[in-house]
């Protein structure tokens, strides 16, 4: 059994220590925003923050995560108001959406340590494989989120998500 903090909540997970953190999050904690892509940590779809650092959850075992603090896309901002989420939507840096949670988490980790990253810093922090071709928009979104975090630009007001009860989907 591993004890860790997930999205600011202490949690004991009863799975073998060699279970990838990705599957512990998805199967035991029911946090399905973290996606499985390649299983080798190369694609970035499974990126979460572990003690504030962006890490691929498919290559980190539950035993290695023991006692650490993990933040998933669900814990970053449940109401979608994190500057990175706002900027990704405003800059249309989302195409199919599969790798978006991992990209958002990597960008949020970068901006937490460097709110004014150069384009090279962004490229190094977001080496994800996104087949949709949104890389230029990703760079603009991260730069915009940095300006919001630095107070150089006001927060973006996104419309409320559409639901079956509000006439959408």
Task: Explain what the structure shows.
- Strand 3 and strand 4 form a beta hairpin.
- The mean pLDDT is 91.
- This protein is 36% helix and 12% strand.
- It is of the alpha+beta class.
- The protein has 2 domains: 2-76, Ubiquitin-like (UB roll), CATH 3.10.20; 83-149, DNA polymerase, domain 1.
- It has helices at residues 21-28, 62-65, 73-76, 83-90, 100-113, 119-125, 135-149, and strands at 2-6, 9-13, 47-50, 53-56, 69-71.
Task: Draw up the topology in text.
Layout: E1 2-6, E2 9-13, H1 21-28, E3 47-50, E4 53-56, H2 62-65, E5 69-71, H3 73-76, H4 83-90, H5 100-113, H6 119-125, H7 135-149
Parallel strand pairs: 1-5
Antiparallel strand pairs: 1-2, 3-4, 3-5
Helix pairs in contact: 4-7
* Percent of residues in β-strands: 5-15%
Name the poorly predicted regions.
Answer: none
Major sheet: order of its strands?
2-1-5-3-4
Assembly state (oligomeric)? single chain
CATH superfamily of the largest domain: Beta-grasp domain
> Any idea of the CATH class of the largest domain?
Alpha Beta
Q: Mind telling me the C-alpha Rg? A: 16 Å
Record field, number of beta strands = 5
